[in-house]
Design brief:
The complex is a heterodimer of chains A (374) and B (404). Chain A is of the alpha+beta class and 374 residues long. Chain A has helices at 11-27, 30-37, 45-53, 72-84, 91-104, 107-118, 226-262, 274-299, 306-332, 334-337, 344-358, 361-373, and strands at residues 123-126, 142-146, 149-153, 155-160, 167-174, 177-184, 193-196, 205-209, 214-216, 264-265, 268-269. In chain A, the strands form four sheets. Chain A has a three-stranded mixed β-sheet, with helices on one face. A three-stranded antiparallel β-sheet of chain A has the order 2-3-9, with no helix packed on it. In chain A, a hairpin with a 2-residue loop joins β5 and β6. Chain B contains eleven helices and ten strands.
């Protein structure tokens, strides 16, 4: 089996890990996370500005486009700490939009947008549709090209942070083939966005109505690069969500441990009961596996074959680990676990949204099986 | 330790090791080789493995990084890692003297006197002296601290009475690392324990073989009846037995490593199971086309890959900051449980043939998988059951209160 990933770290990763650990912990305490649930925007613009100033959006953008010139491997420790602290911002969607531009955008498109993103402009991807399929090629939205213009139609769902994004990259079909179109936020009418009610209350998501939206033919990605763009988006999304979910799993396990160490029942600290202790250890073991896979995926990023196997293993393991540890966290908190005040539910909901966006553990395994066995 | 070798030195060494194992490894001696040191049951298995260990030691690929003055190779541990990789590559047999080389040896090297190191280390590496472990007792399995075997000081001797159980290689070993009670009035059960490097071939020590669930033999119960040993056999000082036993268990559970080389438990290669699945049929089609089987198999690949990568991650402090003891302490639990599940899963591939066992000509791979599954419990029970391991991880890595 020579397509299995390996593990290693870069100096930059370690540096960013230290900085991100402190930043996310300090800027995203749980009372702030909860306050933002009721906020329309859903994040603190001041913190978003700081993230831009820290250069985190520029990490995986080449120096030629005002980026730092590192890779997704160095984005991982940041996304991990964001997930750990339930820090919601357009960071993930913006990073993915930049990766899509790098994979499929023309030189001119990259030159127009990547420096802006590197400097802190939010962007997002519009890929999902009403059929609910994780296969990104299974779409119905269309574009009709005529006279240097493309007229779009159809609806995209689960477009994260669309209201804040200056750029939306949408997948459409032109003459039956999947293409990508760059849409400036300003080209959308006021009623083109509908805020969706998503299960993760810390996120913001929109349905985007493309009907009648007209973009220039220059705003399309090259038809010849659709396949690599789809692959890149899928893997980058897998990696970034795996990082968030791994951080989230660590957090929800820590949160539960605190409770198990303080709560008394029948005169004993409940963490001394094996019925609670043993499954908690099982969850912890699964979390450590997820973190190992995460840093293997980061290390193997970009390697042909190995990269995809490693990312999908990380995505599968982190999704199952995060889901199970959050599920058990609700149960182990007893009556309190059933309330909105218990943080366990925030994590359980987040794990569901992540799985919905990139494909859950079973979906990742089905993809892996083909890579491993066929 | 010796200086870190250059890439060129390592490459040369790797080539030599590779050539040696390619040339000298016998994979099929004509009888079934044990997968773990705990299942050596016949004379031919024992003799073969003792000769194999001696041969590997004499070639310099065992104990390569142990101190030269006691019989080791005196090289940097990277060399040993390279040699062990060559053994895996050529599917070499296991090392017989696991308790000696894996646990007693590192303990003696860490804490023993000069005289003890001179006396025990080299014959241990060469498999001249086989070691066994006397921790568990019939009434006190995982509750090691409650050991009751009595060691009463009489002049410059100790007199031993009691019994130990689950002693792998107990009827063949020359020495036993022994946990015994020297003080029945100590303030707590742990303080009354002492640790001995105990000779086995003396009057007053007898063994009786125990038949395992596999149908084979492999361990014994050991009886001590007024057995007299020299007071020099005491290791670590009277009353320090618990601390010595815990240090030993750190090696046994893989929490601490002083790599001697080779392996005591053969790792299951998941690709063997993939092959098994490819060669199995269900409804007239390859079993690996079955989506449920594919899904389960993939999860096992994910699990195995994680555990293998954990071995590397453990050596990367920058990825081990939050709970540095987490991976080392969970290693035994995760690995042994996975092997149990995986070998059990392999039975599901065999369809009607899952009904056969070792000895029947229709058994798949001569019953290898069934035997592996049944034997896998030796690792999920021995050395502290998985349930005890979960308590250890919970209490020492996660900080949960003790279970009483």
């Amino acid at each position: 089996m020579d397509n299995l990933g390996t593990i290693g770290t870069t100096e930059e990763q370690i540096e960013l890990m230290d900085v991100a650990t402190n930043f996310c912990r300090d800027k995203s305490p749980i009372d702030k996370v909860r306050a933002l649930i009721d906020d329309d925007l859903g994040y603190d613009p001041g913190i978003w500005r700081e993230i831009g100033e820290l250069g985190w959006l520029a990490i995986a953008i080449p120096e030629a486009h005002d980026g730092v010139g590192l890779s997704m491997a160095e984005v991982v420790p940041i996304a991990e700490q964001m997930g750990r602290n339930l820090m919601s911002t357009p960071f993930g969607s913006t990073t993915l939009a930049a990766q899509a531009l790098l994979a499929g955008g023309s030189e001119a498109q990259q030159a127009a947008w990547l420096p802006k993103i590197a400097a802190g402009a939010a962007a997002t991807l519009a890929l999902r549709e009403a059929n609910g399929d994780w296969d990104m090629a299974n779409i119905d939205a269309t574009g009709v090209e005529s006279g240097g213009k493309v007229t779009l139609s159809g609806k995209k769902l689960l477009v994260l942070w669309a209201d804040s994004a200056e750029l939306i990259i949408a997948s459409i079909k032109i003459d039956g083939a999947v293409r990508f179109a760059l849409i400036e936020r300003s080209a959308l009418g006021d009623d083109a966005l509908r805020r969706e009610t998503v299960i993760d209350e810390t996120a913001r998501s929109y349905e985007v109505n493309l009907d009648g939206v007209i973009v220039s033919a220059d705003a399309l990605f090259d038809a010849g690069r659709t396949r690599e763009t789809l692959e890149k988006i899928e893997l980058a999304a897998g990696l970034i969500h795996a990082a968030e979910m791994t951080g989230g799993a660590q957090s929800v396990i820590d949160y539960t441990l605190e409770y198990l160490k303080t709560r008394k029942q029948f005169g004993k600290i409940i963490g001394s009961y094996q019925a609670l202790k043993h499954p908690t250890v099982n969850n912890y073991v699964e979390y450590e596996k997820a973190r190992t896979h995460l840093y293997s995926a980061a290390h193997s990023w970009g390697e042909q074959g190995r990269g995809e196997v490693a990312v999908r293993m990380a995505a599968a393991q982190s999704h199952s680990s995060y889901s199970t540890s959050a599920d058990r966290a609700i149960q182990f908190h007893g009556g309190f676990g059933f309330t909105h005040d218990c943080d366990a539910q925030l994590h359980r909901r987040k794990a569901i949204l992540s799985g919905a966006l990139i494909g859950d553990a079973a979906y990742q395994r089905s993809k892996l099986a083909s890579l491993l066995f066929d | 330790m010796a200086d870190k070798p250059s890439a060129a030195e390592l490459k040369d060494y790797a080539e030599q090791a590779d050539a040696w194992f390619k040339e000298n490894t016998v994979r099929d001696p004509g009888f079934m080789l044990p997968l773990t040191f705990m299942e050596v049951s016949t004379d031919e298995q024992f003799d073969f493995l003792r000769d194999w260990q001696r041969k590997v030691y004499e070639a310099g690929y065992l104990g390569a990084s142990w101190p030269k003055e006691y019989g080791g190779g005196g090289l940097h541990s990277e060399f040993q890692r390279v040699a062990t990789r060559a053994m895996k590559k050529y599917d070499a047999p296991i090392m017989l003297n696991a308790i000696g080389n894996g646990w007693a040896g590192p303990l003696i090297l860490d804490l023993g006197t000069e005289e003890q190191k001179q006396k025990y280390i080299k014959p241990m590496l060469s498999a001249e002296d086989i070691w066994c472990q006397g921790f568990s007792e019939p009434e006190n399995g995982s509750d090691l601290g409650n050991a009751q075997l009595k060691a009463v000081k009489d002049g410059d001797e100790y007199v031993l009475n009691g019994s130990k159980i689950w002693t792998s290689l107990g009827d063949r070993a020359k020495y036993m690392i022994l946990l015994a009670r020297t003080d029945f009035d100590a303030p707590n059960k742990y303080a009354g324990l002492s640790f001995f490097l105990n000779p086995m071939k003396i009057d007053g020590i007898t063994t009786s073989r125990i038949k395992k669930l596999t149908g084979e033999y492999g361990f014994v119960q050991t009886f001590f009846t007024d057995a007299r040993i020299s007071a020099d056999c005491l290791f670590g000082g009277e009353g320090n037995g618990w601390s010595m036993a815990m240090k030993t268990l750190e090696y046994e559970r893989g929490a601490k490593v002083k790599p001697v080389g080779g392996f005591f438990v053969k790792e299951l290669d998941v690709m063997e199971i993939v092959e098994l699945a490819k060669n199995s049929v269900r409804n007239g089609k390859p079993l690996l086309d079955d989506p449920v089987m594919r899904d389960k198999m993939t999860q096992y690949m994910i699990d195995i890959q994680a555990l293998n990568l954990n071995n590397t991650r453990r050596r990367m402090p920058q990825l081990m900051q939050d709970r540095p003891m987490g991976l080392p302490l969970m290693n035994k639990l995760a690995r042994t449980e996975l092997i149990r599940e995986l070998t059990e899963f392999s039975l599901a591939f065999q369809g009607t043939k899952a009904g056969y066992y070792v000895g029947d000509e229709n058994a798949v791979d001569d019953g290898y998988w069934h035997r592996s599954y049944l034997n896998s419990f030796s690792a999920t029970i021995g050395g502290g059951t998985s349930e005890i391991q979960r308590n250890i991880v919970a209490e020492h890595a996660l900080g949960l209160p003790k279970t009483r």
